[in-house]
Design a protein that fits this description.
heterodimer; A: mainly beta; five-stranded antiparallel sheet; 36% strand; globular; B: mainly alpha; two-stranded parallel sheet
């Protein structure tokens, strides 16, 4: 059962990683919205150690949409420009509402 | 006796080429031969994968786009499940990575990049062009997409949202461009000819005048 649904606001966690995570540094700590729930896959942290076919932990993958202007300081495009990427569930947490 | 860098024996690059390439190719050969010896796959399997990979070209993606332009029900299926829609028209989705089709609209222009490596929808587009794999494209597509698109001659109006798709993990992305003006009444085959690789990555837009002579 996936933890998040389309439309949920989520924050991409800031974690130390030793090796392979497929979470680009430029989105860590950023907040976005789940655009769609994708299938489950073996997480990269296990895939990297040869556990793709045997014993790798599987998790739901999510497509997360973010605003370019919030990701990059000094973004020179348009305010409505967005970007999306795929993030595994353990890298996401519910976004705290800003007061 | 003096020696200098100039006097040292060197391996001429063409000699390495004649032996089958550089260090990554040697590494690939070694790992492949080990995998075959240990029974992970056979030499015939490997040959067939190469043949599948080389057989895929952007003409396959163009067929999918042209079908979606003439058949709204097919377009809906393609947006819901790109892999199934590709298989429906006979495309061999040999690499098992699920395909997502992203439609351009009057409000949104989609652009695909893989910032972490060079993930690319090979079964529908063939092998990626060199520029797609370059660090320059990868870092700028996500950081300065409008300026990058302008270098390709593609100017997206300010009121249109640019949506950059980082193909950073398990899915693969194909852009479904908008059908251009001036193509009313065209057949599916005529339409497919103006759908180029670059249109399906999102760095260009199709035009009724872009068909090859």
């Amino acid at each position: 059962m996936s933890r998040f649904s389309a439309g949920d606001r989520v924050r991409i966690r800031v974690e130390q990683t030793l090796f392979h995570s497929r979470v680009p540094a430029y989105v860590r700590g950023r907040t976005g919205v789940i655009e769609r729930v994708l299938p489950e896959f073996v997480i990269p942290e296990d895939d990297a150690w040869g556990r793709l076919w045997q014993g790798g932990r599987r998790e739901t993958l999510y497509r997360v949409q973010l605003h370019q202007a919030e990701t990059w300081s000094g973004y020179r495009g348009q305010p409505g420009d967005t970007h999306e990427l795929e993030i595994f569930e353990h890298w996401l947490e519910p976004a705290k509402e800003t007061p | 006796m003096t020696t200098s860098q100039h006097d040292m024996p060197t391996v001429h690059p063409s000699a390495a080429d004649a032996e089958g390439g550089g260090e990554f190719e040697i590494l690939e050969t070694a790992v492949r031969e080990l995998a075959i010896v240990h029974g992970y796959f056979s030499a015939a399997d490997h040959r067939q994968w190469l043949e599948w990979m080389d057989a895929a070209t952007p003409a396959l993606g163009a067929k999918l786009v042209a079908r979606a332009w003439v058949d709204p029900a097919y377009k809906e299926r393609a947006l819901a499940n790109g892999t199934a829609a590709a298989q429906e028209i006979g495309i061999n989705m040999y690499d098992r990575d699920p395909l997502v089709v992203m439609a351009n609209t009057p409000q949104v222009h989609n652009l695909v990049v893989c910032t972490l490596c060079s993930c690319y929808p090979r079964p529908v587009l063939g092998l990626a062009p060199d520029w797609y794999k370059s660090p320059s494209y990868r870092r700028r597509a996500v950081r300065w997409p409008r300026a990058l698109l302008a270098e390709f001659g593609t100017i997206i109006p300010p009121e249109v949202e640019i949506r950059v798709h980082d193909s950073n993990a398990n899915m693969r992305y194909l852009v479904l461009p908008m059908r251009p003006e001036g193509t009313e009444g065209w057949t599916e085959d005529q339409l497919a000819k103006i759908v180029t690789r670059d249109c399906m990555i999102g760095v260009a837009l199709p035009s009724a005048h872009s068909a090859p002579a």
